[in-house]
Amino acid sequence: MHSRQSRAPVSPGALPVVLVHGLAVSHRYLMPLAARLSSSYPVSAVDLPGFGLSGEPGHVLDVAELADWLADWLVTTGRASAALIGNSFGCQVAVDLAVRHPELVRCLVLVGPTMDPWARGAARQALRWLRNLRHEDPVQLPIILRDLRDAGIDRALGTLRIALRDPIERKLPAVSAPTLVTRGAVEPVVPQRWAAQAADLLPRGELAVVPGSPHNANYSATHELAVLVLPFLRRVSAVDSE
């Protein structure tokens, strides 16, 4: 598994932060958020197997397999009990990991968690994504196209089918870690109803809306997202130090 690590000096024992990308993309579109958080926390942005610069796992991995790879990476690299920040499909992987490997997760941030159970169909999701594109920063386009080339169409479509079948709403009540759910104020991919339900299903969930943001707040509204994420991480860290 490929990853990029921050090198900025932070306080000893600071909470490790791990960024998890969405469907058919990679660490590349997470870098603006990684840079914004790196002055306060040790940040890693991973490429899940088969995506970005990570190796080919031999088949299209399902959510549980991706979560297990990420769990092994956390243990191997000494980042256990980390803050996981996922975007889109990355939220599904992070939630699955938090349910089955709770000892590895200190807290979660779910940025635009998919899949909305009221729109669990490829056609409806495609329409929402098309509507969302006009709000995204166009500078992302070459990054996403490069990521799609690296993953390949077959892996991207196979992972989409897996994502659509993954019942994240059934897993959320089993997440014991404190969790911040966010959605972009102008995004159609994660409507307010679904974001609110996701936060309510979490035993320790809270909801925040990223002002003016589309789905990929980690790239298109980095500052606005960080303004919400940093206080949450500080609260979690403060509890750890008590």
From TrEMBL:
Stored PANTHER family: ALPHA_BETA-HYDROLASES SUPERFAMILY PROTEIN, HYDROLASE
Domain of life: Bacteria
Organism encoding this protein: Amycolatopsis marina
GO MF annotation, one: catalytic activity
Domain annotation AB hydrolase-1: ranges: 16-135
UniProt-recorded name of the protein: Pimeloyl-ACP methyl ester carboxylesterase
One Pfam assignment: Abhydrolase_1
InterPro entries: AB_hydrolase_1, AB_hydrolase_fold
